[in-house]
Queue: 2 jobs
Job 1
Amino acid sequence: MLIFEHSKPQRRAAAQAPLTHASMNGLPERFRRTSATGLPEVSELQAVRHYTRLSQKNFSIDTQFYPLGSCTMKYNPRGANAMAMLPGFLGRHPYAPEAFSQGILSTLFELQQMLEDVTGMRGVSLTPMAGAQGEFAGVAMIRAYHAARGDTARTEIIVPDAAHGTNPATATMCGYAVREIPTDADGDVDLAALRLAVGPHTAGIMLTNPSTLGVFDRRIKEIAGLVHEAGGLLYYDGANLNAILGKVRPGDMGFDVIHMNLHKTFSTPHGGGGPGAGAVGVSQRLLPFLPVPLVAHEGERYRLLDEQDRPQSIGRLSAFMGNVGVLLRAYVYMRMLGREGMSRVADFATLNANYLAKRLAAAGFTLAYPQRRATHEFIVTLKREARETGVTAMDYAKRLLDFGIHAPTTYFPLLVPECLLIEPTETEAKEALDGFVDAMAAIRAEAASDPAKIKGAPYTQPNRRFDEVRAAREPDVRWRPAV
Amino acid sequence: MLIFEHSKPQRRAAAQAPLTHASMNGLPERFRRTSATGLPEVSELQAVRHYTRLSQKNFSIDTQFYPLGSCTMKYNPRGANAMAMLPGFLGRHPYAPEAFSQGILSTLFELQQMLEDVTGMRGVSLTPMAGAQGEFAGVAMIRAYHAARGDTARTEIIVPDAAHGTNPATATMCGYAVREIPTDADGDVDLAALRLAVGPHTAGIMLTNPSTLGVFDRRIKEIAGLVHEAGGLLYYDGANLNAILGKVRPGDMGFDVIHMNLHKTFSTPHGGGGPGAGAVGVSQRLLPFLPVPLVAHEGERYRLLDEQDRPQSIGRLSAFMGNVGVLLRAYVYMRMLGREGMSRVADFATLNANYLAKRLAAAGFTLAYPQRRATHEFIVTLKREARETGVTAMDYAKRLLDFGIHAPTTYFPLLVPECLLIEPTETEAKEALDGFVDAMAAIRAEAASDPAKIKGAPYTQPNRRFDEVRAAREPDVRWRPAV
Amino acid sequence: MPFIPHTQDEIDAMLAVIGAPDIESLFDDIPAALRSGPLKTVPDALSEMQVGRLMQSRAAPDAGALNFIGAGAYEHHIPAAVWDIATRGEFYSAYTPYQAEASQGTLQLIYEFQTMLTGLTGLEVSNASLYDGASALAEAVLMAVRLNRKSRSRRVLVPASVHPAYRATAHAIVHAQGIELIELPIDPAVGRVDPAALAAYDAEDITALVVPQPNFYGVLEEVDALTDWAAAHNALLIAVVNPLTLAVLTPPGEWGAAGADIAVGDGQPLGAPLSSGGPYYGFMCTRMAHVRQMPGRLVGRSIDADGKPGFVLTLQAREQHIRRSKATSNICTNQGLVVTASTIHMAILGPDGLARVAAASYANTHALAEKLRPLGVEPVFAGDYFHEVALRLPVANAAPVLERMAAEGVLGGYELGRIGWPDAVLVCATETKTEEDLQRYVDTLARALRS
Amino acid sequence: MPFIPHTQDEIDAMLAVIGAPDIESLFDDIPAALRSGPLKTVPDALSEMQVGRLMQSRAAPDAGALNFIGAGAYEHHIPAAVWDIATRGEFYSAYTPYQAEASQGTLQLIYEFQTMLTGLTGLEVSNASLYDGASALAEAVLMAVRLNRKSRSRRVLVPASVHPAYRATAHAIVHAQGIELIELPIDPAVGRVDPAALAAYDAEDITALVVPQPNFYGVLEEVDALTDWAAAHNALLIAVVNPLTLAVLTPPGEWGAAGADIAVGDGQPLGAPLSSGGPYYGFMCTRMAHVRQMPGRLVGRSIDADGKPGFVLTLQAREQHIRRSKATSNICTNQGLVVTASTIHMAILGPDGLARVAAASYANTHALAEKLRPLGVEPVFAGDYFHEVALRLPVANAAPVLERMAAEGVLGGYELGRIGWPDAVLVCATETKTEEDLQRYVDTLARALRS
């Protein structure tokens, strides 16, 4: 039932708005709304009950194991939420004067510094509101850098075929052409292809390392050398930073710019699709171009730097200073982990992934890169299973839901057929991993004996499998009352 | 799965305790524990996931309609929770000095006054921690009153047969014998029986009005006269106060003492079985005996009165000042309702009950007191249905769960066979009531066609019906690891 | 109409079904003479926003002090997850789990709670909670009187080292049943029960002996000897314990040769905020042989019609709603939500976490006492203490010193002058206190003593 | 090891399965020369308790002021239920609902959100959110350029009355694609778009016209005339609106004869706390005909294998994970949790509640402006304003006056000196302000002007 179906004309949650309806005498008629808004009219209890029950229809980390590759679905500490929701933080207006800003600004300044430290970059801007906006900021800085040097011939961004879709989409938004290069048999960047691709038209390359194939590109220094020699810059997509936190720093690998997904590596909540935070870090040469505002520490005071302080900045990406509430959660998380906790993230994310990969292989599943060490994630390809039984990666994914386990990422990266990209994260216990292996093995057995059953899955969720084609063909994207 | 089954030796939620283990060098060996506590060793995520999932196995007001007679399961405003959990309230030590107490004391003082106002009593003590403790306080004051007058012959408390079990249990705790009197055919106290029962041995009578039969005893003044003439006092069980809030005051009916269930009438949460709050109010003659502490307003300051200020007090019922957090929620609720909101509670609780009673009667169900006006609750008797189909009140109750509706109170009061005591409360919308009628009618139809199905209900809950006899015969009341 | 969903159309339709002209007529059973006039004290309604601002203004002035008071209520860190989960609607707004099939969340949680409490106390069975520690002691006394058929005296020995409010509460609740609580004096040199005073009752009929650990003064009692005395004299042994300390102290079930018969206490240190004294919860554990005399709710594991395990309220024949005037107690509603929080708290902290909290509290209190010696501040008692200590200030009257400290935002402890030690303060420094906090106490007290 | 559940036994067992001697060896693909040394800036770990105290010390100094600043972020009451429910683990810790069957909670909620936003804006389709109002404007400009095939200019008119940060953001995001944002001046007497300035573009190829309502100065634009101008000149009309005001103001879908093509804005006034500027959310609504050029996620209702209705992400072919370099935008993560809160907020407030909030904010701001006249404070513009007003103080420079007010705990408004009006302040008094608050503003300003 939709909230609108609980609605009755003139029903109200009367404690929640001013008790009387103030007059707007002075407001000319021509500005006044005469049509209905269609908003629901329900009691407070009805709203609470409706949305509490809706919430119960979701999978979430707090209720299920979520081995979703490339998404880093780790535990989101409740303490980080509680501290970010302190009234002093929630109530502060973004234009509050400095005297009412030192608490938040000092915190954000320290966050900038800690993120510089873990990424090996020289400067960080916290303002991008998600990974994709961080990517935009990064590529825009690359563009600004070349422009500032008068180097206008660079029109291309190189992107490996395994990259996240946001990478090419971002390059386009920044006015670049996208040049895709292939991956070699070991899952690394195809160096020969890269050599052919780079040149005076190369603005830069966007890479993830470890890549979305779950392997660490061992020749990263060589790649950096090739691109830099050609005058291009290296962009690091931080989606997989969890794999290497405290182990190797993108700055040390030779990257010029990085975005971090604080909602992955630093465990701010995914929230059903955001808000994220996509802080960007840069090397020395890109420092002048960082998006504003930045937080500066001047003597005893902290203050925001804006366009006037930073004339070469690529500018402003949001009205204020980004998703501050998310930044606070990341700060709290980093302080609770501390120096040694950073590399433990990579340690145990990697231990979990390698253990799970070995156990799945032992259970008969095919790893996409069995010759490689898994990083924090790895790929199983169900190509053989799909051919033999007709049961596809999607079928496995849906059937896993019946075992109380969220599906891994399916059909990404695009170059591995029938793939499941599996990332257990460091916060899951061995029992959860063993349970996943058991579920996968059980589905495998079912696939042999009763493939139709798997095709019909899930059975235990509020809905069976959806007709997505119909949804796209006849879009029903808002409720309208029956006439 | 139990939390203990997630436990592994040395697993820890490391952010939640001091980071190092301090030395207790000075503690002599003989005091030190050597055995294991058996507490679970789990990660923070495991605990969060376990208890979040457990919570989803509960019915609750926030998720279901809960027409539980005599329990007043109304909406518990989330705002009351938020305000009671303000850090200033949570952090205050009960022995904090006056300078750090004026906020809470002024609030509790106003709560005392508002409760006096709505009950028509002369004084209120907030200290009892639940209805039953309020009852104890009330009967103890009756005892103290008689004792103070040297009237030592009064050894009996009169209790109607429809009373809550706490009433006779309380009288026993206070050292009284219990004399039960019957109810007449209209659901009122049997006056003839009362006349026979009262006398110089009568310490008092414990009444609920409206009674647990869901009717208002119209001869309450006559009852009060009879008891008072015999030298006894009248105790009002406030469980049903929701029915008459702002309409008629126990003090005006002639009661000498009342307890209020703030977790019913004033909508503090039931919490799966408490904490409640059972404030007591008294007439003039019982004022000296109120339990301590009380809050006094002296000039500009508020302070607690203790045994020294109140030498005739029945004393102290808890270490500190009762369930203050619950009292705060009740205070917030009362302020949001305000003067006019009080009587609206009774208005709409009564409207809902009478509507539901009429509709159920029209659907073929038998009301226990069809000749009477329902109050905020009413009784359906399924005696005929049980005889004809074998489907009992308990079977209806269990089957209702499958319709997403909590069972009404069953088999109480004890004198109505196969009864359901139904209290919809004022916060439920007409649709919820109509849905209840539809569910009851559907069960009735099922009872005719397939009674075995109902006997097997519920089917949609985590468990089917339990073997309660076995549970009591071989009590398994704690988990022990398999050896 | 806050919280009332009815529209005028619905009201009209419902009245039509009822056959009543208006809502007022639904109250026609109430004699006109009794009908209330307008309320006098309840003010006009406020919106949630308005009450929110009011309550903030009430909460603010009581906040902000650095607290060193214990005396039965202890400041400990509570993980954010604890109350986040406990206040989820499904726990917060659920009723007592009488309908077991629709209450497995609460029921399983209580079963886990019972298991945890038996583990901490070293006893065999725990109920689902009582109101608080003080009233739990009263219930324990009543239970002991029911249990001890060998004793006819209804006399219970209660040391003066039991929390004074606990003693007052127990008296208020039990005295109407002819039960006498006899105060057992302490040895003023060491601050614990005087063995000579106890020996005075060697030949008497005593129904039960109460033993606190740590006692009100923070001192550790010689629990083994006391327990053995009770066993030797046909008295039941009622332990009153701080459950947090049981992470590191010998549990009542292991006291002496036979162990305590009943252990009670306040669960507050295990996840309940100070909150001006409540809601906390009382707990009670005992031997399985005594279970049918135990008051309060009890959850048991059973199986359902499909043979699937699950949880139910059990042994309800002890309770008031079944047994009425013959019940073990009149208790009905208890402290469910606090128990919910406490169970989550214990699960998150675990045995090692609780031991660390206890040890840090022990170490902080001892460190503070040491730091105060140069000011001429000394422990009142020579007995070993745990995480609370009675300190004698170098003044005749401690109260004004505490007042001056409070004016600087430091709550220096519980005034022992309230119970006869005018120069003494009961001080507690839990794991929440840092080195800087302890130093602030020292500096503030030094100033307060000077002025 | 905070948040890591592994015991040493488990680590050993897992390494044995992997066949690795230790965890360190799992990183042997990383060239040794690249391995990090110890971190320098990240401090040692703190416990939750320690960080809690630290964060309280950070939050406290920024709190406690009485705020009259608006300027794109508005203080409104948010019912306690809103974030209680939004931060339930099932919403808070869920991923983007790609697996529809396991995400019906989030998906249905977004479908309801989309319906509410189309209702408020009077348009046909809403996406599931963008980052904030400013970046939503940028996305709207990009979308308009894609949509308007009749226009070749890639020139978009943006009035100077659009929030300056929105204009800066839009420029930063769109300029690399060769799009020019042309500033359209306002009439300084009335504070809204100068019709004469617009007329100057009558003969030009303009891709889109942006129209704010209310505008940055709180003034109401003549939206009908502007919308009709756009329609007459083959320009798309992009509305930038405060969604709360749409409870009482003509919705963009009804502006002029044809309505706006795209409406964007910031959802903050509908349930997001001020929180130093975020997280808020951007919204975007448009005509159904334009849906395939709309960026961001979209939820549709469909049926499952059993014919049961439910909800899925739909029209994903617009998005980056499918369409990569040809996507409508690179947006992926948006502001889901804030949308969750906002949907609950709108459901609780309802049409009447939002209208009351808007009306009270209107009335309070107008009342404050009137109360200030005796101090010589006058509106800068003659145009009708809604719940925000530019006021000219009787001084050359308003900044020091605001500073003196802040020192008394009153944030007197946004300094318009930042954008060229040194004697002026942009003031907003929402429904959160009482009579006493308004009087406090007056009194504080009076003192600040005198000193």
Job 2
Amino acid sequence: MPNVDLQVELAGITLKNPVMTASGTYGFGEEYAPFYDPALLGAITVKGITPLPRLGNPVPRLAETPAGILNSVGLENPGLEVFLQEYLPRLKNLDTAVIVNISGFSLEDYMMMASAFQKGCGIAALEVNISCPNIKHGGMAFGTDPRSAEEVIAAVRKNTGLPLIAKLSPNVTSIADMAKAVESGGADAVSLINTLLGMSIDIHAQKPLLANKVGGLSGPAVRPVAVRMVYQVFEAVKIPIIGMGGIMTWQDAVEFMLAGASAVSIGTANFTDPLAPLDVIKGLEEYAESRKCASIREIIGAAH
Amino acid sequence: MPNVDLQVELAGITLKNPVMTASGTYGFGEEYAPFYDPALLGAITVKGITPLPRLGNPVPRLAETPAGILNSVGLENPGLEVFLQEYLPRLKNLDTAVIVNISGFSLEDYMMMASAFQKGCGIAALEVNISCPNIKHGGMAFGTDPRSAEEVIAAVRKNTGLPLIAKLSPNVTSIADMAKAVESGGADAVSLINTLLGMSIDIHAQKPLLANKVGGLSGPAVRPVAVRMVYQVFEAVKIPIIGMGGIMTWQDAVEFMLAGASAVSIGTANFTDPLAPLDVIKGLEEYAESRKCASIREIIGAAH
Amino acid sequence: MMLIKEKVIENKQIGNPEQGLFRLVLQGEAALAARPGQFVHIRVGETYDPLLRRPVSIAAMNRERRELTLYYRVKGKGTALLTQIRPDEMVSILGPLGNGFQLPSSGRLLLIGGGIGVFPLFSILEAVDRKKVDVKLLWGGENQCFMESAGLDGLKKSGIDYELATMDGSTGYKGLVTDLLRTELESPQNKRDSPAKTLLAASCGPGGMMKAVAAICREAGVPLQVSLEERMACGVGACLGCVCTVREAGVLQRKKVCKDGPVFDGEEVVWDAEC
Amino acid sequence: MMLIKEKVIENKQIGNPEQGLFRLVLQGEAALAARPGQFVHIRVGETYDPLLRRPVSIAAMNRERRELTLYYRVKGKGTALLTQIRPDEMVSILGPLGNGFQLPSSGRLLLIGGGIGVFPLFSILEAVDRKKVDVKLLWGGENQCFMESAGLDGLKKSGIDYELATMDGSTGYKGLVTDLLRTELESPQNKRDSPAKTLLAASCGPGGMMKAVAAICREAGVPLQVSLEERMACGVGACLGCVCTVREAGVLQRKKVCKDGPVFDGEEVVWDAEC
Ligand SMILES: Cc1cc2nc3c(=O)[nH]c(=O)nc-3n(C[C@H](O)[C@H](O)[C@H](O)COP(=O)(O)OP(=O)(O)OC[C@H]3O[C@@H](n4cnc5c(N)ncnc54)[C@H](O)[C@@H]3O)c2cc1C
Ligand SMILES: Cc1cc2nc3c(=O)[nH]c(=O)nc-3n(C[C@H](O)[C@H](O)[C@H](O)COP(=O)(O)OP(=O)(O)OC[C@H]3O[C@@H](n4cnc5c(N)ncnc54)[C@H](O)[C@@H]3O)c2cc1C
Ligand SMILES: Cc1cc2nc3c(=O)[nH]c(=O)nc-3n(C[C@H](O)[C@H](O)[C@H](O)COP(=O)(O)O)c2cc1C
Ligand SMILES: Cc1cc2nc3c(=O)[nH]c(=O)nc-3n(C[C@H](O)[C@H](O)[C@H](O)COP(=O)(O)O)c2cc1C
Ligand code: FES
Ligand code: FES
């Protein structure tokens, strides 16, 4: 029996281990349950929820790229009400920390989402996806301007008592500035990275392959960018980091933790190997043991 | 004999075909000459030159990542003087357009580089790499701020009569804004993309794998980001685009041209397959023929 | 539904090499759980290029020998890599996935296949009790070479009632399989006023063809099941990448092809959904 | 230097499987051009993962049979994929690359190998005229199991004069190969005042070892050639990824390991360059 303490603290919540699943890649916690008990995970993050139900984008929504995928799901989700009534009760039965990812297209959207989730409602934290376009600001994403980002996080902060995680977009000149902005807006932690904006063109049809033209790039292809951003953000802010972006193996997870992540999220890897999160947990444990660490926390930021 | 006209016009120069090699991946035009005659290429771009010789960064300078590589060569080059005396005479003997990539760490650096290259000096154009840190501005790269970018291009513009290509960094929130800035600075064309900033961590040594910590990500992994940027820039500016970033095959080159590139550069692919540029030329020709295009120019921007 | 390594029993080109068709036989537990119309999601290599699994329909299952038979056409990188896997090697599959066809236990069943879309229909031919159900297959394809490569011989041997349509008329009717379908539905025994209640249809093929099939079946009042294809990442309903659009009680909804399908009520599907 | 597809004649694990060592024999034109100390740059797969070629030293070349023999140790993804290539398949190689060793045609030659760094030295043992040159190999490795797996038997058969050092003393001297080197250089015939002008040394192994070897040889006034390793992308001098630092006429300079090397004057190399 390994003697490594895998517990990590994050935004005031204690996770049994640092391995979570990334929003949009793990459905609502039920899809992968036939393969293993979600209770083995440190936390799960559910698909992004918006105030109203959304059909999302037309198909094709997926394009495979070298060592990556582009997706343009377009935030398809059942909407806040159905989520609270149908999905949340089932999520509460999972013996793991549940993080709800929320999205909106205006400050008001975010505030109303935030106020629907309070302490005791059965979830561990809110993750605020600020990569969405702000419709009132000409569609410029909240997450690409430090002021908007700080504003939206502050607004959410005022409306909920739950721990708050800001999910950052990598499509910015300075990720450190974005992290500082959400830190001063009141975020308890940051998640990074969301997907890189990309495009694939169908050379037969001579038009973009995705119906939505652009999509978000994820998977191992983006890992070097994600690791760099985690490393930079670790030096810029005091709040903990949830690292993600192309983690396929425990070695990748170790890279993110050494760069400064207190926990890691597995996204695209679930599609290739549904058991990837469990292999990562096991590998982290063995790595820590082989380095004679009593706690996995000792490796956080050790590459600085 | 195919009936496709492969010629393209770019910044006032006529290329026999739209396929060039990317700066830093093709040395000084001699390294791949044992494999094929560089005269078969539309143009070659030489390694970035700085006013003074540079040793570049310590090793390791390379890290392989999924479908990509990180490099931190650090602009090792013989410096302007040695370049002019030793390399340029040999480059002039190649029967292809030679583009010289210049870099600097201050406005003065760029101006002095620019004035060293004038019409009739034997090169076809100057490519201005603005991804370098501006030492006078706290190390913030010229290429991440539209005003600095415009300023540096305008300064170069004043000091040379040669066609001017601005090479853009992808590490920005809005590539379209950067392209507009260099267009109004006087650039005759834009090259994109330079490398994405990334990092890889050695989990045994528990420190960044590259001696320089961060490096530039290139190769097929970045292609979706590059195609998206070319697509966006095509809609933002009137000057022609040289597209690059992970082009390995003619299909990839077609993607870039459909997205809006008037020419393409082959970079990392040279390392995997030295003959990649020739395969791309052949494939472009056959593609155009199969689509019944009299000229390859007909596919430029056709995906819009 | 399981994540399992299965042993490759056979992975062999079939028919004319130009057609790029392969038969893959896998041995393992998945065969015990499989139903007609389901598919498996195959990991074709061990590196990150390609990164995603590839969905392939189950064409036949043999419970005693614990074997699944799949047919695939080489299309791009993934299927090309799949051809390199040799007998006795193990491949990782996720499956069986999806809902599968609902099979009648009596009456008549009309199958309409387009191109390689016929492969999932093979699983019906195998599974349905042909003593009790009167099955007929209408199959359209490019030309005789394709049809023969893709399994025409087997069809002949099986004694199934079938009709073919090819684009160039090199075998069977010259034209579209939907023409065959129209003719078939107008045959005396299939007229609306005849015992049409006993007639069911199932189809798989290109989107355009299935849309036309759905229109014809609706017109004729024949219940239709369609097996859809869409680009997939997870295969289990977690990513929302593979949706189709359906109209339920007048309201547009998304369904996941991988989990809610791939087989849908032909009446329900909104073809060429614009949003 | 050519870009060529060569036929795999053999690709086989050698010695104890734990050591992960393989011998790869390639047939083609490259063998005709190869010199001792050069290397080839191998494409280990056809996808983009891994993306880069892998450099492997030439351990032996047979001009008549047009064969190159390489030895490699499985280290990561690339070398693991290389093991999957079977005889009769073709692999793309770029090479022979680099400058190679300068071989004496008389006198004495001392080879100092560390671990798998011995492989390029094998090419010298093969090429040098042993009737005219008195060759001796000092080889350090982890333990007997490694030494035997990596080719000790062949050495024995070849009749070469050699001495071994292992970390655990399981064969040969217990300790570092540099200890053997010191002892060797202090043997009467190798003393500075003896005809040391006729003694040359060549070394390949881990950086730390070669640095020590260089210091010892410099001290003893023995000219040394070292074969360096560095991460490579292009292999032909185009990317500047693989440099080492040398001091020429007192000035620090970069050299490309792939093109200017991999063999350098041991005197020139700046070990652990800080800039
Ligand atoms: C439920 C289902 C069942 C299928 N059954 C079969 C079958 O029995 N036999 C068969 O030959 N093919 C079948 N297909 C199609 C098969 O999955 C694709 O041809 C295959 O994924 C192409 O991969 P590739 O790498 O060769 O091609 P590429 O074009 O290189 O693939 C690139 C990406 O596009 C996706 N893609 C490309 N074409 C299709 C397609 N038609 N459908 C879904 N995704 C696609 C790939 O999965 C991959 O992610 C089925 C598809 C689905 C969704
Ligand atoms: C000139 C030269 C000659 C060589 N000769 C031999 C030989 O004869 N036998 C042998 O077993 N090995 C030799 N090597 C080392 C061999 O190239 C590496 O072990 C191999 O590239 C590792 O690849 P991988 O994918 O298995 O490992 P990974 O660690 O997965 O490789 C990741 C990346 O790092 C690079 N890399 C890792 N280790 C090394 C290394 N030691 N040197 C250079 N690049 C490295 C790889 O090329 C790749 O780009 C030689 C290296 C060089 C430079
Ligand atoms: C299909 C898909 C859907 C996603 N949906 C969301 C979402 O709804 N909200 C969100 O914040 N991130 C979403 N993401 C981003 C992931 O949570 C994650 O940040 C990103 O994919 C990088 O991690 P990975 O490379 O491990 O997948 C989605 C990613 C994918 C691939
Ligand atoms: C090893 C290496 C060195 C490079 N050096 C330069 C350089 O000196 N100047 C420059 O503008 N770009 C440089 N680049 C960037 C390339 O020119 C190109 O923009 C980038 O690699 C993307 O193209 P690719 O993915 O096809 O390689 C370098 C790239 C690599 C891989
Ligand atoms: S493929 Fe992920 S939901 Fe269907
Ligand atoms: S590997 Fe490119 S210069 Fe040596």
